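Cross-check.
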Amino acid sequence: MRENRLRTLWRQDQAAINGWLAIPNSFAAEVMAHQGWDTLTIDLQHGVIDYAQMLTMLQAISTTPTVPIVRVPWLEPGIVMKALDAGAYGVIAPMVNTREDAQKLVSYTHYAPRGARSFGPVRASLYGGADYATHANDTVVAFAMIETAQALDNLDAILSVEGLDAIYIGPSDLSLALGCKPVFDDVEPKVAQAIEHIVERAKAHGVHAGIHNGRPDVALARIAKGFRFVTVSSDARILAAGSQELLGAMRKSA
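Predicted model, tokenized:
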């Protein structure tokens, strides 16, 4: 089966640099993948990407060693299993608030006897290899998003679920849940404290911690604190920022 390089990085105690895909276009995904990101996450929860577009984006990413991940719209078995069948090597599930939620995520992402994933890896077996069914349970990565006050209250119970590989912090939703302004990077002290608590508890449970960032300096600082999966910006934000920089230089000179 094709290697999941994300797991390889983690075995080496290295952080994966993750890019975020919000533009519903396979060529944009292909361009991003060819820049050397460790992983790329296709976002089905927010933005404008649908399932059919996601499939073409997964195909584009597969022209490179970049690991394809999908953030599904919700913790719902149908879309989780369809994303995996399409060839996603990791699934990020939003709003995982309880131990039961985490158990459902593990079940949806694993074949029996570990879980209840239905068998039908139509494209996954093309991407992963003919022995996909044999190794999928140990290859696919399940991320639970920790982004609510309820999840914080249930953090240790969530992290103790066997088969949960990683957690992913959404700083904006976590900020809102704690009564603060929704931002990625310059979070308020209450949120910063919660983020440090989450990564410390994740390390204690042997679960890898990931987080969304807007700037490289913030992502690097969070790697130093123990995060091993850091998202840095998105295709849409990079496009906008690059355009602004170019136009700013042109208009200043003009």
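The longest helix spans residues 235-253. The CA atoms of residues 199 and 225 lie 8 Å apart. Passed to J.P. for a second look.
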